[in-house]
Amino acid sequence: MVLLSEILISMKRIEIVINEESLDDLLELLRGENVRGYTVIKKAGGFGSTGERDPDDYALQQNNVIVVLACEDEQAERVILAIHPKLKGFGGMCIMSDCQWTVGPAVSY
Amino acid sequence: MVLLSEILISMKRIEIVINEESLDDLLELLRGENVRGYTVIKKAGGFGSTGERDPDDYALQQNNVIVVLACEDEQAERVILAIHPKLKGFGGMCIMSDCQWTVGPAVSY
Amino acid sequence: MVLLSEILISMKRIEIVINEESLDDLLELLRGENVRGYTVIKKAGGFGSTGERDPDDYALQQNNVIVVLACEDEQAERVILAIHPKLKGFGGMCIMSDCQWTVGPAVSY
Amino acid sequence: MSLSSLLVPAILFFALGMFACLIKSDLKFPPDMHKMIVIYLLIGIGLHGGKALAGSDMGSAIPAVWAALAFGCGLPIIAYIILRALGKIDPLNAAAISAHYGSVSAGTYMTAVAFLAGIGVTYEAYPVIMLAIMESPAIMIGLVLAGYSRRILGGASKTDKGMMKHLIIDAFTNGSILLLFGSMAIGWVVSDASYNKIEPFFELIFMGALCIFLCDMGMEAGKRLSEFKSVGIFLVSFGVAMPLIGAACGLFVGHFLLGYSVGGITLVTVLAASCSYIAVPPAMRLAVPEANPSFYLTLSLGVTFPFNVVVGIPSYYAAAQYLHATYYPW
Amino acid sequence: MSLSSLLVPAILFFALGMFACLIKSDLKFPPDMHKMIVIYLLIGIGLHGGKALAGSDMGSAIPAVWAALAFGCGLPIIAYIILRALGKIDPLNAAAISAHYGSVSAGTYMTAVAFLAGIGVTYEAYPVIMLAIMESPAIMIGLVLAGYSRRILGGASKTDKGMMKHLIIDAFTNGSILLLFGSMAIGWVVSDASYNKIEPFFELIFMGALCIFLCDMGMEAGKRLSEFKSVGIFLVSFGVAMPLIGAACGLFVGHFLLGYSVGGITLVTVLAASCSYIAVPPAMRLAVPEANPSFYLTLSLGVTFPFNVVVGIPSYYAAAQYLHATYYPW
Amino acid sequence: MSLSSLLVPAILFFALGMFACLIKSDLKFPPDMHKMIVIYLLIGIGLHGGKALAGSDMGSAIPAVWAALAFGCGLPIIAYIILRALGKIDPLNAAAISAHYGSVSAGTYMTAVAFLAGIGVTYEAYPVIMLAIMESPAIMIGLVLAGYSRRILGGASKTDKGMMKHLIIDAFTNGSILLLFGSMAIGWVVSDASYNKIEPFFELIFMGALCIFLCDMGMEAGKRLSEFKSVGIFLVSFGVAMPLIGAACGLFVGHFLLGYSVGGITLVTVLAASCSYIAVPPAMRLAVPEANPSFYLTLSLGVTFPFNVVVGIPSYYAAAQYLHATYYPW
Ligand SMILES: Nc1ncnc2c1ncn2[C@@H]1O[C@H](COP(=O)(O)O)[C@@H](O)[C@H]1O
Ligand SMILES: Nc1ncnc2c1ncn2[C@@H]1O[C@H](COP(=O)(O)O)[C@@H](O)[C@H]1O
Ligand SMILES: Nc1ncnc2c1ncn2[C@@H]1O[C@H](COP(=O)(O)O)[C@@H](O)[C@H]1O
Ligand code: NA
Ligand code: NA
Ligand code: NA
To answer: Hey, what domains does chain C have and what are their CATH numbers?
Structure first.
């Protein structure tokens, strides 16, 4: 266990789901908060307060996008505080959980 | 930190992976449990007790789908209990973890 | 709550993001550690220490892949220790968090 | 006209698609395939139209433009009144549904073109202009009807100006409209020699590609058809009656006002009778989020489109023939 | 027949695809492209077949139907016996592999059609019916063989009735079979004038599109070929021997029982010799989950398909020619 | 040459695509559609070239090969010197950008072919060989320039041998090069009868498919064009000047050294003036990760490509015509 604790850092994992058209705005916001790493999954579907969103629907194609980012606690706090007022416009969800980052040669959080 | 605690609610994050053909059944089950929000990622691949599943395989295309949902603790409990007996049919996995939901204008959990 | 605790097992959830070309190497490594289940999401994008990676870019298509796996604590430890020295080559991230696995008829962790 | 004229390959492929859906076959065309064929067909129809227009008298196109605008504005209002008065449909759903009937379906138009080509009937160059023009006005009218509905409902009538503008811009920068207008312009300006180089791709193989498109549309319509029940008997009847009302207007305008040939009247009638399932649904989803999408989509894709393709087009043609033979005004 | 008849573009493109895979090129066709071409080719072959059948005597099609059913049921049993007796392959893998050899590969059939077209040989209209019919029976026989194998293995012989039914329904609502039968029916009923409108898309450019399909199949076969080792020498030899056995049956049936021309015999032989990689693999994955998919896929895509395309078709043609010249029964 | 020769459909569709991007239309072609058309076009151009070469004297192809190698090696060095001396661009960005200008753009080449076809000008069979050959050498020179730059920068000059080898292999197993060479070989060997069977797909409908490709490229170029500002005035001017320098070399080589016809000179000029956006960018991303991709991509896709398509090709043709008429060396 000694080894593991040396290569793991306690961090936060933030998972955001919004509609795909708002992705650029979100990424700009994240870059504004100096986020140095995120992962993007496009063409997701879902269901929420605004009803169903289905990327495969023929006439009413509506794509969600998932953005996952791991960052340190203060950074996470800043991100959450920055996203919170915008969530209405993005129309989606944002959840945060604890995670442990495996240190690597390059830092991207 | 005061601010953050005001906009975060402790919830559960449930992540389900099943084969894509069973998606409709799963969503029906979730709707039966009054789930008010979920996110769907299609065309996933994977490996499990039934071997490899690859959406890109030419002759044997087999798609998994990932469903992520955030909900309150009791709701999560109900969902897990409802899914548990069906897991065999769906052929997949279902994991749950803690998360914190950023409150937004519309409630979808 | 009695019921729930009977069908849930404490496990680890590992989430790895690497470039798609390295996927085969990663899966080989995972199989080498006797991982018995994982889920793969291809065509992801992202941003990290090596800049932006966009699967939809016309001239410079660069795909990330996300691999999620749930496994028992010791197994997770082994996986993290095995992946750690390779992260540079894969060029990505690897995070771990706690989760609870819903027991099903077939064991794939 | 015999029943055998129904045996147009395009329509048979539509039926095949519906059949596949009915027997729950796993037949499925890649979604991108559909998008690609739509792009191809729109360009093809635009180029062909532009080339035909280049050889026509452009002054004579003006009445067609006016007719298109009249249909786009008038038909949704008729639809709205019917839905509200006869159907007691709630105002916002009525507004959203109405907008669809003022617009057109390029798929229906192309099927009609295939039908006419199959029986060797010629037509004027102008209906294709109407096709391109009619996509947008109905969206505007839909917005107006929705605003009016909200005022009826007593809700805060704060019409979101930003969204209004957004939607209007959208309506005119819409991809399919742009493709249609753009390729029409290109067909117009290029020389015959140049056109002949691209003709094999855009005309020679057009009818075959249309078959694949309609097979896919058949599957899509079949999927929607299964939602009949959730939509209710009144709306389903409306989905059959409204194209007939549109067709009546189209026949009248095409014959008496525009004075077209039988082929031209048929196409004008099809435009008036058809109902959008491409540009209007996303616009209404955004502009009238309170309306239930499964209502307008089921009506448009599951009822009116198949009705027009299978029953409507030959009937409209027969009616145009009758009208042309009986009331020849010149 | 000279070696130059091998220089059919379609077959050369297949070789190009295999070569690309061999030198580990990053050449990759979009998966949807492949699906689209398959849809297109199936419709094309169906329409063409339907049109040809419309001009044929349908009574004479009955023997072809019987032959198809006989191949579909007989060949898997022969394959199963060989795999069990000679190869000591475990019963469930043997059952799953066998099923593939009773079915057909539309890709091989179309390559044979291209080959015959290249050397200007005509053929009967009936083999295309056999192509459409032969997809399904082999799946049923595969299920029966798997049930029998399970009983041998002493396992609980509770054959899952639900899945049995599911698979049988699947086999008959299968998308490619539906497309083939559907477009055959459409080709049958439409008038010549209508058919001529869609002919450029479905016939004129068919052979070119087939080249792209075969290039992609070459890459797929190349990928599977690299799994040779994991499959073992016996199975690889089986993948070459079984099509030869099928071909012998096909030659016999095509010449002596059906009495077809050289072209027709060649096509019947190709049907008997070919092996499914579309409908059967997913069915076997579901019905016989205990079997190792990499066995039947490597055999079907990596061994038998390339063997038939490169070596088989010209040999079967030569054999048909010889047979026709030597034992002319009439 | 009148302005109307600019009204080639292919170029108009390119303009339509840029226009769509400019007015922020939601027009968007499926990414796979683009990949498919590229595959199709490369095979088509290869087959056509191969067939033409089969009828040519192969000895005369040697000078074309040498010219291709000279362009591939020489042009990047010229570009590098200009970027470093005049633009004070940092060495690694200069190396990465330079490599692009030694390579070619098949899209530009095909537009030029469409242009020549539109005005009925014939050309030699050899430029297509140059197209196939020129993709790779520039990548090598890019690697060398990057290594040299790193040494200038004083960094550890440990050139990663593994990656070097990887990139060289990549350059020669690259999918598009393989398709081009492969289909050229196939076009070469197949008989005329065989070729005629696939000609409708690969030639007859080629020019139409090219229109769709260029419409998409127009949108892509439009997207990149909007990044003008981040690239700076010097680089944008370089993106216009460099193709002119390349064109000058091309005109000289095409006319005086290769002695081609006006059509042939035009194609050689286009090859020298064009700039890669397919094979080179990913190679440079890997080999020179320090360089900013938005520099070379904006230059290649947003500046040089549209410049060549809209202004370059007709000018190069006019220049070739002038040169051919004035300095006829034989
Ligand atoms: N409770 C939830 N769990 C998971 N995803 C959600 C949840 N609520 C909303 N979403 C996602 O966020 C998208 C937009 O939500 P909404 O704006 O509430 O319609 C939905 O389409 C879902 O993909
Ligand atoms: N331990 C695991 N971690 C992550 N994904 C899993 C795990 N086990 C199963 N899965 C996913 O669930 C799918 C079906 O699992 P199975 O029914 O066990 O074959 C697999 O293809 C994986 O995508
Ligand atoms: N902090 C992070 N959070 C989420 N994803 C990340 C993070 N850092 C890196 N990634 C992902 O890993 C990929 C490769 O990272 P890198 O090698 O640092 O460029 C990126 O493109 C992202 O998709
Ligand atoms: Na209408
Ligand atoms: Na067979
Ligand atoms: Na160049």
So the answer is: 8-101 (3.30.70.120)
